[in-house]
Amino acid sequence: MGFSTKQIHDGVTPDPLTGSILTPIYQTTTYVQDSVDEYLAKGYSYSRSGNPTVRVLEDKLTALEDGHDTACFGTGMAAINAVFMAFLNAGDHAIISDVVYGGTYRLATKIYSRFGVEFTFVDTSNAENVRAAIKDNTKLILTETPANPTLKLTDIAAVSAIAKEHGIPHGVDNTFLTPYFQKALDLGADMSIHSTTKYFDGHNATVGGAVVSANAELHEAVSYVRNATGTIMSPQVAFLTLQGIKTLSVRMDRQSENAQKVAEFLESHANVASVCYPGLASFAQHKLAKSQASGFGAMVWFEVKGGLTAGKKLMDSIELWSLAENLGSLESLVTHPVTMTHADVEEAERKRVGITDGLVRLSVGLEDAEDLIAALDAALAKV
Ligand code: PLP
What we know:
Strand content: 5-15%
Number of helices: 14
Bound molecules: pyridoxal-5'-phosphate
Mean pLDDT: 97
Largest sheet: 7 strands, mixed
Number of strands: 12
CATH topology of the largest domain: Aspartate Aminotransferase, domain 2
Radius of gyration: 21 Å
Strand order of the largest sheet: 1-7-6-5-4-2-3
CATH class of the largest domain: Alpha Beta
Low-confidence stretches: none
Helix content: 25-40%
Shape: globular
CATH architecture of the largest domain: 3-Layer(aba) Sandwich
C-alpha cells in the first residue's frame, strides 16, 4: 500500500461494538480485569501505562515509519526526555547535533547536566565529527535533521553506520520532515523521534510526541520510562492526531510546494540579505537534501537587510502570517528564534552555530502561495 493509503487506514479498524469509523476516545482511568489470573488479558490495566486510542496512533506511526513499535507522549519534549532517561546514567556522555530545538538543548544543559550526564554538541553535518567525539562512556547519539532553526542537515545513514560500529543507539528527531519525506529508520537510525504537535497534528490543536523504535529492546526501554514517569499522551490528543495524520501527505506536498515558491520569491527580493531552504540550488547541502529525503519540507529562514531591527519590524507588521511559536500547521507562522524558540541557548552558542539575531523563521502553511508572497512583499516594502 502507498503512504496515503497507510496514513488513513493503518492501525484503524471500525469499532467492534458500534461500527464507528473513527477510533473512539477511550476516556477511562482503569480497565476491569476478568480475574486475577487473567490480568492484562485484554492488554490494558491503567491509562498511565497504555490506552486504546493512543495505541491506535502508535500502531499507525509504527507502520508509517517502518518501525518495530511506538510510544506516544504528552509532548515532543517528553519523548526526547524519555530517550535521554532510557539510555543515559550519571557519568555517561551523549553526542547531540549542535543545532537542535532550543528545548532539547535546555533539557541537556540545564537539567541532565545536574545529574552528571555530559554532552558534546557536534556539527553532525560532517559524520566524521561524530566519530571523533565518541568516548568510552558515550551512550547516545541524537541528531536533528533538518535542524531547527538553521535547517542544517545530518547524513542519517553515515551517522547511523558510525553509531552501529560503536554499539551506540542513534535517535533522529524527524519532526521537520516526518516519515512521508524522510524514513529515518530505513536509513539506519535506531529511533525516530517526533513532536507530533507539528505536521502529524497539522492543525495547531494539540501538543504531543512519539518515539518510534527499530527493535523491541529500544521500545521497552523508552516505554518503561514513560510508565515510570507518567508522560503518556492523552486519548483526546491521540484522537485529534489520528484525524490530522490522514491528510499528512497532501498537506506536506502542498506546504513544501508553497515553501519552494516563498523561498524563490525571497531569494529574488532586493531587501532580503540571505535565504535558506533545502529546495534551493543555493542551499549548501542541496544534494544531501535530495538524496536523503523525498521532499524538502516547509520550513524556510531568511534575513532581512538591516538585520535584527528590520527583521523585527517585518515580523511585527506582516499580515496573514501569525507571529507564533510552533511549526508544521496549516496556518503559516513566522517566528523569531532568538527571542522565542531558542531563547534558552546562550548567545555565544547561538552565534557559534549560526542562529543569528536577525534570523526570521517561516513555517509555510496551506494558504495560496500568491497570498503568502503578497503579504511578505508588502511587509518587506516597509522595512
Ligand atoms: N523537536 C523539534 C524539532 C521541535 O521543533 C520541537 C518543538 O518545537 C520539539 C522537538 C519539542 O516538541 P513539543 O513542543 O511538542 O514538546
